[in-house]
């Protein structure tokens, strides 16, 4: 349920409205839009007498939020959410370029790639220290040692850090090193993990599950937001379809759909979305043209020897060329890198 508060209502009076909602067993969340306070009341709203709520002091209007996701909906917050991370304002006119290896493999590898992606124009470095691998015999990541290396390499080049957290018990540790907590496709509906990252104050990069609908994806974002953390960056990374010529089918339709339904920023991962190095740049360009707020790209200086996802990793020179192209596309769209 959405309460629009009459303009000019005092802060204590707005606080009273939120308190009344809480007394009714609901949780109250606030956003301000064009100088007007808006309260989303979530929970069992069916038992509430809407006519009585309309008569509360300071209430201008009351209406239902029709979608199952509430806090992440455009109905609640009409303007775009902008998330500040390091030098980047994700969801603003400025595009967010996040790049780095699939996995942190060691000091030399990570520092080499950090230098390359920073030089090319990335502002956020990616790198997995905890890896969700299909096989238990594949490289599982360097854990905390990997996070430490990633942080130092990123700091050396003025980059922010995004890294995946696999388990609710790891959240505290990963949050100590990373600026953005990545929830992977395989964990999109790990509700205890969503709850745990929702209790932190760190931005969350929420990947779309490979068999998840847009609505299910937004419901997962709602889980995070419901815990008080509304800094969620959605990441389209391809879905599983009948098509087998690429690793995944990158669903670019999702970008304008999500933009219509939600105020959250959306970035695209063309690396996992295609699984093929030669397709990363074309799909990255298409994603930006379709309105994505940024990219998450795997880059490796020696992909033949990468411990994970080498075949889809760009060489540094390819990433540099891609950023040049993205810059030109951004200009046409009134955006910038
Ligand atoms: C990754 O970013 O390296 C990763 C494992 O991605 P996803 O969760 O999209 O498969
Ligand atoms: Mn990967």
Describe this structure in words.
The protein has 337 residues and is an alpha/beta fold. It folds into 2 domains: 2-63, Alpha-Beta Plaits (2-Layer Sandwich), CATH 3.30.70.1140; 83-332, TIM Barrel (Alpha-Beta Barrel), CATH 3.20.20.70. It is elongated and about 65 Å long. It is 34% helix and 19% strand. The longest helix has 17 residues, at 316-332. Strand 7 (96-100), helix 3 (107-120) and strand 8 (124-126) form a beta-alpha-beta unit. The protein starts with a strand and ends in a 5-residue tail after the last helix. The strands form 3 sheets. It has an 8-stranded parallel beta barrel, surrounded by 7 helices. It has a 4-stranded antiparallel β-sheet with strand order 2-3-1-4. The model has no long low-confidence stretch (mean pLDDT 97). It has helices spanning 11-23, 50-54, 107-120, 144-156, 171-177, 191-198, 214-226, 254-261, 270-274, 277-289, 316-332, and strands at 2-5, 27-33, 36-42, 59-63, 83-85, 88-90, 96-100, 124-126, 160-164, 180-183, 204-207, 232-236, 266-268, 294-298. The chain contains 11 helices and 14 strands. The structure holds phosphoenolpyruvate and manganese (II) ion. Manganese (II) ion binds next to loops.
């Amino acid at each position: 349920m959405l309460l629009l508060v009459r303009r000019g209502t005092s802060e204590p009076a707005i606080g009273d409205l939120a308190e009344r909602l809480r007394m009714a067993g609901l949780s109250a969340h606030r956003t301000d839009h064009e100088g007007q306070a808006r309260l989303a009341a979530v929970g069992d709203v069916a038992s509430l007498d809407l006519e009585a709520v309309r008569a509360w002091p300071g209430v201008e209007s009351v209406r239902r939020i029709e979608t199952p996701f509430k806090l992440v909906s455009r109905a609640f917050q009409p303007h775009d959410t902008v998330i500040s991370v390091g030098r980047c304002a994700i969801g603003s006119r400025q595009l967010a370029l996040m790049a780095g290896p699939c996995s942190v493999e060691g000091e030399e590898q990570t520092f080499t790639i950090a230098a390359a992606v920073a030089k090319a124009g990335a502002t956020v470095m990616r790198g997995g220290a905890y890896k969700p691998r299909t096989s238990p015999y594949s490289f599982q990541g360097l854990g905390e040692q990997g996070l430490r290396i990633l942080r130092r390499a990123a700091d050396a080049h003025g980059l922010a850090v995004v890294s995946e957290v696999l388990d609710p018990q790891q959240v505290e540790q990963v949050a100590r090193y990373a600026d953005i907590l990545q929830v992977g496709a395989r964990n999109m509906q790990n509700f205890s993990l969503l709850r745990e990252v929702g209790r932190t104050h760190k931005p969350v990069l929420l990947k779309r599950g490979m068999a998840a609908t847009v609505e299910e994806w937004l419901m997962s974002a709602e889980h995070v937001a419901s815990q008080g953390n509304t800094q969620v960056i959605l990441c389209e990374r391809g879905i599983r379809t009948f098509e087998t010529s690429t690793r995944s089918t990158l669903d670019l339709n999702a970008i304008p759909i999500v933009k219509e339904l939600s105020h959250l920023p959306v970035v695209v991962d063309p690396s996992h979305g295609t699984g093929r190095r030669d397709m990363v740049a074309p799909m990255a360009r298409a994603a930006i043209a379709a309105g994505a707020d940024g990219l998450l790209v795997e880059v490796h200086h020696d992909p033949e020897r990468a411990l994970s996802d080498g075949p889809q990793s760009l060489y540094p020179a390819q990433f540099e060329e891609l950023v040049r192209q993205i810059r030109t596309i951004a200009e046409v769209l009134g955006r910038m890198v």
